[in-house]
Amino acid sequence: MPLNILIVGASVAGPTAAMLLQGSDPSHNIIVVERHPHFRAAGQQVDLRTKVSMFCGRWVSSTLSSRTETGLEVLDAGPPRPTSTTEDESMRGDVVKVLYETSLKQDAILRRDAGKGEGGLTYEFGKTVTKLTQNDNDENNKNSIDVTFSDGRKKRHDLVIAADGQGSRTRRLAFGQETSDAAFKSLGVHATYYSIPRAEGEGEMARAYSAPESRMVITRTSGRPVTQVLLFTMKDTVEKLLAKSHKQPIKKQKEAFSEAFKDVGWQTDRVLAGMQTCDDFMRRRWRRLG
């Protein structure tokens, strides 16, 4: 039976779920909404291990750019220590872009084969969900969900999938703040990911600087004209500062990370200056499920 399906989030999970559901029944009417104006390409790399590569290889593996990273050099108080990085690792932006574009290609093919039949896949950016109401007591529409969107529009769906990450707003709307918070336990790690201009002669070796007081700075180019920066900290003295900034405007979040990393040394001046002007800033609080 064809369903009206809403998927919230257009990163890795959203387009993947859309392709699987549409492939199982092309008559499903699937809408993917994303609160950002475009799909988000920032974030930590994605490891496509053997079983995952076999599962999604027909969509992803043949299309992703070749990874040119030659290894990882660990820097601390001692001499540099070169190590290897996994060959199954892909840039998150590449994976998201391929999944998004491939889902649209699959939709075009299925629509063409189906003629003017029902079903299809649609993406709507710059929009999110503000209210969910399940119709348990409506005998004619039992188990359907009335959804209110940020633009004021309302629509009824048979299935709503929360693919909007650890901090899922959809999960909070469906189960409440207390239940949502109880599902994840903080690991005390704050992280941010963004891109800065690549330095001359930077090469293809990723570098991880282990700084004092449980802080780490990672740079990696992966064959790109920009350098990806990853900042991680478990520093107790900045926990409250970073936690407070989590729901503040991006400018305030950048200021908080700059304060937390201002004295770590190495390439701090470069990576923090680049953070102020980057347009792909993403931050996360690491949490454990359960």
TrEMBL record:
InterPro entries for this protein: FAD-bd (IPR002938), FAD/NAD-bd_sf (IPR036188), FAD_aromatic-hydroxylase (IPR051704)
Domain FAD-binding, chain residue ranges per copy: 5-251
Pfam families associated with the record: FAD_binding_3 (PF01494)
Top-level taxon of origin: Eukaryota
Signal sequence interval, chain numbering: 1-18
Pathway membership, UniProt: Secondary metabolite biosynthesis
Protein name: FAD-binding domain-containing protein
Naturally occurring in which organism (per UniProt): Pseudomassariella vexata
